[in-house]
Write a structure and sequence with these properties.
The structure holds 3 protein chains of 3 kinds. Chain A is of the alpha+beta class. Helices cover about 35% and strands about 35% of the residues of chain A. Chain A has a 3-stranded antiparallel sheet with strand order 2-1-3, covered by helices on one side. Chain A starts with a strand and ends with a strand. In chain A, about 15% of the residues are buried. Chain B has a domain of about 250 residues: Phosphoribosyl-aminoimidazole Synthetase, Chain A, domain 2 (Alpha-Beta Complex), CATH 3.90.650.10. Chain B is an alpha+beta fold. In chain B, the strands form 6 sheets. Chain B has a 7-stranded mixed sheet. Chain B has a 7-stranded mixed sheet with strand order 25-27-23-28-26-29-30, sandwiched between helices. Chain C has a single domain, classed as Rossmann fold, CATH 3.40.50. In chain C, the strands form 2 sheets. A 9-stranded mixed sheet of chain C has the order 2-1-3-4-11-10-9-6-7, sandwiched between helices. Chain C has a two-stranded antiparallel ribbon with strand order 5-8. In chain C, helix 1 links the parallel strand 1 and strand 2. Classes of the chains: A alpha+beta, B alpha+beta, C alpha/beta.
Amino acid sequence: MKFAAHLNVMPRAEISDPQGQTVERTLPAIGFEGITGVRVGKRITFTVEAPDENAARTIAASASEKLLANPVIEDFELELNPL
Amino acid sequence: MTPETATEPPLHRSLGLTDDEYSRIQEILGRAPNHAELAMYSVMWSEHCSYKSSRSHLKDLPSDGPHVLIGPGEGAGVIQVDGIAVAMRIESHNHPSFVEPVQGAATGIGGVVRDVVSMGARPMALLDSLRFGPLPGDTGADRTADRNRWLTGGVVSGISSYGNCIGVPTVGGEIKFESSYSGNPLVNVMCVGVVPVDRIMLARAPGPGNAVLLLGSTTGRDGIGGVSVLASAAFDEEAGTKRPSVQVGDPFTEKLLIEGSLSLIEKGLVVGIQDLGGAGLCCATSESAAKAGTGMTIDLDEVPLREKGMEPFEILTSESQERMLVIMKPELVQDAIDECTRLGLRASVIGEVTDSGRLTVTRGGEVVADVPAASLGDGPLYHRPYTAPTGPRVIRTPAPDPVTAPDEALLKLVASANIASKRWVWEQYDYQVMLNTVAGPGPDAAILRLPGTQTRIAVTVDGNGRYGEIDPREGARHSVAEAYRNLSTVGAEPVAVTNCMNFGNPEIPEVMWQFVEAVQGMGEACRVLETPITGGNVSFYNQTLDDAIYPTPMIGMIGIVAPGSIAPPIGFQNEEDIIVLLGRTKDELGASEYQRTILGALEGPLPELDLNAEATLGWLMRELISRDLLNSAHDCSEGGIGVALAEMAAQGRWGAQIRTEPGRDLIPWLFSETTARVVVAVGPGDLAELKDLAKGIGTPVAELGVVKGKLLSIRGMADIKTAVIKEAYEQGFPRSMGEIEE
Amino acid sequence: MRPTVGVVVFPGSNCDRDADYSFEYLGADTKFLWHLETDLDGIDVIVLPGGFAYGDYLRTGAMAAYSPVMDSVRRFAAAGKPVIGICNGFQVLCEAGLLPGALRRNSGLRFRCMPVRIRVETLESPFTSGGMWPGQVLTIPIAHFDGSYYAGDETLEELLAERRIAFRYCDAEGELTPESNPNGSRLHIAGILNPERNVLGMMPHPERAVDPAVGGTDGRLILNSLLYSLQPAET
């Protein structure tokens, strides 16, 4: 079976996010008021082939933890949908 | 007009070919071209690839000299320095950078670096010459100021991300801001590389039976017709709609491509090599075959593609970045592919050299294009009409708050974006990697050690569009002289030039006149100063609607530093040193920074330029430096003596006490941009020797004062603390970029 | 004895030749080790040089940390032999788990190339034991976009308690002023050691401060200390 994986990688909540802060400071300057709490992360998409969803999730989560995200500074959320 | 064009006018015209050009293609082929062939001629005969408007004017430029190994017409010019070949080249990436500054600048670097690699040389330095419209707060800033700031930041970031990643240091350059570039910024990149003389490569495909390999990235739809679309037409207000033609740079693949190409050459596997730039595969295959007098068959099925469903014309004209064409003996192909695989670089055999003289392209076994290889490069030649504009050039955009006190004017100049320290920019560039940077960004010229030797060269890139607007011939001469002076000020003897000519639409006779004048001025100056031109790049159509940019020839110049000569720093080093002006100051404020920034005007006449005085001054500087007589030295140009002294105070440890020339008005004396001048500081004990040398060769010498204290004190002007000058000089640019909140 | 320095080359490394040049300048033999190499026989020191391994794509050092050579480097380090990761090499060591923490984007969100001052924090390592004094200020260039050292509070406390911070960014007088921290590193950390003190990761480039013709000479102190530590002890 094939599964579409969507991985959202975000800087960990307790870590300052200079990119997000810069974006947040810039928004009012170009006319967007009322926006706070900006954080910049990244989204990674890929396809996993595995016998079942559990197996696919194990593979995807392991890849996420080992390579795609760095747990020292990043959290991730994994979505998996059958294709 | 031929009858056939009546049936097909939209296609060839929409591809930018004239009806006459279309007829010529029919004559060459003896039939109507198919779609793929038409697309190939369209890109190859575009202004950018064919130089059809400029070629006839470039052929008389001086290109011979004792150091020149390879002159114009190859991927890069090559000179010989102490037995090592040094390749040099400038490319423009103006239009792509205006549409998308980060990627435009990044891919501009990628392109010029591949030009140098295609000579077999390892790229060892980059310099950038950039022009934008005025930044917020600057004289002449208008509604474009915020966009100009965004473009500036984006271009710098593109150069930084790409250049740093491929590990080639960015060692110098210049950035200037003028209203004329608001609708069309300039991004010119110079690359210098080195190669053992016996390993220089050429873009030739000799030897029928030899294999044709494509190295590097996959081919996609990005940048199809990029050169003809972006570089061969002026902008309208819908520049954003041209965005699909801009490519995204992949510096990682470029780095692998540099290492892979050089490794194959070093192993002796390569007989010819050419980068894929403008007009992509079509240009690289046809040019390398034509130059060797051979032909080539190309099988498009073997070209690795990035997208599905690409048409033959798309594969042939795609300008996907980071690709290189290599010609090699068939029995060595496996070795080459093994080496590329080891390095992680894609390599595919896509064709074969033939003796047919034709470029024959197949797909799925069918011939999709078959044209005489040489005909693609043998584009039309135009003798465009040119006429001088009438009346003197005067522009006035009066400064909002005119400054009249000389000390305030000086501080305003020192903090202005054109003059202030560009540390904010060059600290974003890795200027040290490769460990050859003896002097990086900041001084009048960069100094580089040639790898594995103690030989040092100096490199600079200079251009003065404002002067060109007043008088394009004189402007070009001034730019050459400025580059010559910058090299001399660090003790180098200039030996060769490369250039990039940035102009508006050549179909406008007044613009064409500017081009013709500038080419002649540049040629004359290079002849007198004995700095032959090893190659160049022409960028036309730098114009939005009716507004052409200032005619801006950029001069890249290389000089050789005598063994043992150590360039003095700009800043004042020792109290009690005597400050001396070499050269004479006239009242020449025409087209000066003072006129631009303080008065908000642009009008002539330009300062007079005596090239022989420049040559004499250059000799004197080299002699003074080789005798180690100078403790500080700074070229006296934009902003005149005033700015030169302020910069020497800002970058040094001390201020100065300066007396002025009796009977002279202070403002013109301080800010005139009279040529052939350098400000130096010497120990009191060395003054007599300096004077003797100067007298012997006929360079005027004027004692300006003495290095002293923590004030810049100029008679007739309020004193300024050196700390205040330093603040203005260092913080001016970050402030213009909005990095320092007021 | 002339020690042999193995300079690892990942795809995209670009300070490999500089490291090679500088170690040779200081009298060592050098050998390039392409990242597919797993045999480290005859190598006395491993250098993970600066650059942009795998283009810095995904995260700096992330993909290089899984290169075949890294398993051998791990065993090399476990055997107590010295490993120095410079700039991108430091990032690789953190991603590979040979050093704690991570290197994040500079707080100013810009690449910075400039000489900085760093303070020697400990002499207890082969990289700092020879010819330096505690608190000595060295001038060494940096050139990075992702050099802001981050580790959680516990890790930082451990680093402090075990005196495993090798270098901290400081001013000319050795003070840890805010302006002297070029990238927002926690505790001004410029370089750290593993618990066994034979693996050093540092963002500044000591190999760029060896040959006086093209930079300073303070980097020699670190590299010479390392080379000296390999000489057999005198009896």
